[in-house]
Amino acid sequence: MPTPRKKQNPKPTRQPTRRPAPRIVLLAVTGMSPAILTETLWALAQEKPAIIPDEVIIITTTQGAEDLQRQLLTPRKDWGGRHVWEALRSTLLGRTANTDSRLQLAKPRLIELPDRRTGVRTPADDLRTAADNAAAADFILEEVRRLTENPDTRVMASIAGGRKTMGALLYAAMSLLARDTDRLTHVLVNAPFDICRDFFFPRQPVKSLTAGFGKEVRRVATKDARIELADIPFVPLRNGFAELGEKPGSFRMLVERYSSAMKAETKRPVRVSFDLLGKTLHLDGVPIPMRHRAQILLRFLIESEKIRDQAEAVEKFPVWLNNADDQVRELSPAKVADSDFRRELNHIKSAALKAGCRWPVTPRILDFSRFVIV
Asked: What is the pTM of this model?
């Protein structure tokens, strides 16, 4: 009788290693109203799932830093001897507030201005001149660059505070250097809490406040406050010009580089090849799944002289098709309407963008002079 084989232990399956969650940093510009910071953090924590940043970084002036210290970091008797930041962490983190490493407020990044007389850069108390704004632009850009160069960090930028120019510069810096995973926001608070200086977040220890001026003064309850976060759309330019975003340089220099690159892009030839049987269109070497009808109409538009509109395209298509090769005639629709051109061009554009290709033609403007069939 044969000896039964011993059962072999199956090889342990290797579990895929999970990439750790990105570290979240809230980057904000602030001025005389640092409450936008606590309001933004409150709104983020109410999202589903809740977002609680690991670190909070403030870009401000010396005046802004003083207001931050006075309003958020100075103990308050009516808050039980705690300061606002401590109370906010306790509210958002709950029982783990004393051991949780999140919501770490970094030392404020003070915008520095050059001093031509002394040659020593000094922290700005305000931004009053064009030169001040230029220096602030470079300062904000470098802070955004430092954060976005780290692939394990997700940036949540807020333009709600500070001077309007500071918010505009942060928006511009995010457009120049931020990634798809980053986020730009503004915070909205309902009246009268938007002008109530003692309001910081709905569940703060002091829940009854005075709001208004003169005869309009009244008592309000913080539970009635409504805080919303508005996402500000931005175009992450580094997606199309990654090599530019990685180069150091001033704010103005980087803007000029992007502008020059975008102008050159509008003149660059677009190489295209067709594979009807394989249902694939190659755009600048990138294969894109594409149906017969879309490829044939695109080839017609490229090979024809510049066509003014869809009506003219419909008129000239039969003549072109009659002179096309057998494969094109066999796979082509016998008739086309102007709606066919709009539909197929929109389809090509969507497929190209999905494949990561820039599509340089709008469906309403049938100018394919830059296209070269290879």
From this structure: 0.68
